[in-house]
Every structure is written in structure tokens, then in C-alpha cells.
Write a structure and sequence with these properties.
2 copies of one chain form a homodimer.
Chain A: E1 7-12, H1 19-32, E2 36-41, H2 45-50, H3 57-60, H4 62-79, H5 94-102, H6 105-122, H7 129-138, H8 143-150, H9 153-169, E3 176-178, E4 184-186, H10 191-199
Parallel strand pairs in A: 1-2
Antiparallel strand pairs in A: 1-3, 3-4
Helix pairs in contact in A: 1-6, 5-6, 5-8, 5-9, 7-8
């Protein structure tokens, strides 16, 4: 028998507001429970397309949008995270997701947190290639090489495959934690529960 | 100066699944913070109509519905609350809401909790007049008199007015806590934050 640590997959979308505080908190929460994490970026577009949505629900339903931004303000204030909503919202997250997929392990996590902080903490346009290159450099990655890798067909296909998995899992939004026994925990409010579930799995 | 306790309005909809665990927990959470509660039943129909929804989003978007029911199972298990989804879902909550509006104070809270427990804990059809009468009797109310009061025009109008207030506040769903300074906390996951906000208001 392998002595494996408990594990969760952390599914996130760079355009997703609530994924920002989740990404900033997940590592400490997981470490406190000795749970390992795989960072799994995906795109909500294909999920939302199935709902008939061609825009963020926070734009389609302004009542929800107004609530979400106020809620985000309170959350970020309470976590001492900066919040500066990007324009336009949602941001086009395709290139950032491709770069994240092209990275592995710690580099992917570091890049992802850097993207969230820039996008929602500083209002940076994350579809901008130069901005993303600067983030790569800042985390110590080779920006040119990573961008070239990110845009290879095989890497684009890997992101597509991840989106297909997200859909087949039935992820209703982002962020989500998915445990090895298939439990889905949706939202930044379910991080603790998802990690607790992973570290103390119950019989099915 | 009056020595007023901090206060929240607890807005809920009898057809709303997440309002069930919220209703079962709100009193103890509020008491622990010396916060007073007004129970304010309303109907989500007019809110959802503005979204273009003529059914529960959990039916319109099956991915969300599947997630919600699994989430509810975990939540109810963790709170030791029974869960038996009613058929059909959502239930028609109009008569229950009218009855709740016709009641005051402790009676309204007791009736509301009884409705939730019957509807989601036992799968009882809450549009059924006889079932609601039995719940009224069980909480020590005069069932016939309360039903008669509930169906008077003036009481129906009070419910309509409450729904109009809910819309004008911008409630995005149910349950919600609303503090005297106008903060909205949506969802059973925001009870503690909303109560904490009410008991320690910050400068605007």
C-alpha cells in the first residue's frame, strides 16, 4: 500500500470572481489538513453555453451582479485582499488558462495566484500577452518559452480536454473542489468542507 | 436613546431549499450574538420573473439542480436534519407564505420552521390546506381563524407588499439577511457574517 495523503482537485476559472479569494486561501487551508492539491484551470464558457448563457450570469442578471460585487468587496476586505474589478468583466481568460496548463506544480499555482491578484486586485487586463509575460517573469518562469508552449496545438488540446472533464463531472461553476470519491464542493464557501471531506472520507 | 439590540431581517421563501437549514439555524446563531430577527417570508416568483425564469433555476439548469440536492444532503447530514425532497419541486408556497404573514412574532417563526421541516424533512406537500392546518394546530395556533385571516384581501396585499420590498432591496435569491444599514447577505452560508455585521456595524 502506498501511504498517500488525502487529495483534492481545485478547479478554477481565471474570469471567475469568487475563484480569486479561493485561490488565495486554498493552499493554507489544505496544508493545515495535510491535503494535497492539483490546480486545474478550466473555462466556464462551455459549461455556461449549455445553460444558454453567452455572458457571465453576473451581467445577464444585474441583481446578481450588484450583489456579487458587494459580496466580493466584503470578502476581500475581510481577507485583506485588494479588489479592483477589471474592465471589461468578465475578462477573456483563454490565454491565461493555456499558460497555466502549460505550467506544472508549483509554477502553475504561483502563476495562477499572480493572475488573480493582477486581474482582481489591480484591474489588469489578463487577455494581454505582455501583462501575462510579465507575470511569468515575476514568478521566475521563462516567459517566451512558456508562451510558445502555451500556444502549441497539443497544449490547446489539453485545455480542451480539461474543459470536457469539467463538464462531464457536472461542475456547476467555479471554483470547485473535487475529491477522489467524486464529491463536488462548489464555491469559495465550500473550501473547508471539501478539504475536510477529503481528509476524512466517509463510506459511499 | 433607546438601548436597541442589533437586528437583522431574515428573508425566506418556503419553496427555497437552502432556506430550510437557514431557518433551522438562524435563531441559535442570532441569540449567540444578541441579535434580534424579523422573519420575513416572501415569494421568489416575482424576482425570478425578472430573470426570465418561470421555474426554479435548479430545474432550468439540471447541472445546478443535481449539485444542489447533493449539497443539501451533505448539509442536512452535517446538521442532523432530515431531508426528503418534496414532489413536485419546487412546491407552490403561496398559501404557506400568506399564513406566515398572517402570524406574528414567535408564532410566525414556529410555523415557518414547521413548514420547512414538513416540506423538506418529510416531503409533505405544502400547498395542501389540510397539511398547513395541521401544522398550525401543532404549533398551538387556531388553524381555522388563521387560515381565514391569511386569505383576506388585506393579508394578501401585505404579502404582495413584502415581495415588492424584496425586489426593491435587490434580493438575488433566498434566504437573505438584511441589516439595518442595508447590507444583504445571501445564502445559508452568510448567516454568521450577516449576524456579525449586524452586531458590529462598520462605518459606511
Amino acid at each position: 500500500m502506498y501511504d498517500e495523503k488525502p487529495h483534492v482537485d481545485f478547479w478554477y476559472e481565471f474570469a471567475s470572481t469568487y475563484s480569486y479569494p479561493a485561490a488565495m486561501r486554498i493552499e493554507a487551508l489544505a496544508a493545515a489538513r495535510s491535503v494535497t492539491i492539483d490546480w486545474r484551470p478550466f473555462l466556464l464558457g462551455p459549461v455556461f453555453a449549455d445553460f444558454g448563457w453567452r455572458d457571465s450570469p453576473f451581467n445577464i442578471y444585474p441583481v446578481k451582479g450588484r450583489y456579487m460585487w458587494r459580496d466580493m468587496r466584503r470578502i476581500c476586505d475581510s481577507l485583506d485582499l485588494p479588489l479592483q474589478p477589471p474592465q471589461p468583466f468578465p475578462q477573456n481568460s483563454l490565454l491565461a488558462a493555456r499558460i497555466a496548463i502549460a505550467l506544472r506544480g508549483e509554477a502553475r499555482a504561483a502563476f495562477s495566484k499572480a493572475v488573480y491578484r493582477a486581474e482582481f486586485g489591480e484591474g489588469v487586463t489578463i487577455s494581454d500577452r505582455t501583462a501575462l509575460a510579465a507575470l511569468l517573469t515575476a514568478i521566475g518562469a521563462d516567459a517566451d518559452a512558456t508562451l510558445a508552449l502555451a500556444e502549441q496545438g497539443v497544449n490547446k488540446d489539453r485545455l480542451k480536454a480539461e474543459c470536457a472533464i469539467a463538464k462531464s463531472l457536472g461542475l456547476p461553476g467555479a471554483p470547485c473542489l473535487v475529491t477522489p470519491d467524486g464529491e463536488i464542493f462548489w464555491g469559495k464557501d465550500r473550501l473547508e468542507q471539501g478539504l475536510d471531506w477529503a481528509s476524512a472520507p466517509r463510506p459511499a
